[in-house]
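Q: Sequence in, structure out?
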Amino acid sequence: MLLPIDGGEVKLPWGTRQYKPVSESLNKWAKTISCEPEPMVISEEDNLRKVQHRSKANGPMLTVLYLEGHGHHWPGFKSSLPEQYVGPYSTNLDATDVMWEFFKSFAATKK
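A: Exactly. Output:
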């Protein structure tokens, strides 16, 4: 595993690295955009958990999707690298579709 969610030591072919929990980085982002420090679980099904750091002042929210059982691949695309290096693959999410839906919500409407 290249970046463990809970942090820890990772052994790579070229040595080892120590990582902090992903939540530390997410909490910094939440604070930067004036969101609540503690995330709320919005939904949880099919090994996909959606959490949000809600806005404190009617501003942006930080939404995070956790995909259980998925390695270091772009969700929806299987890497050609060996599973021993990048972990398993899950088909429960297509990140390209999710991002497109997000950006489409900001599309200008014709008058």
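The chain has a mean pLDDT of 88.
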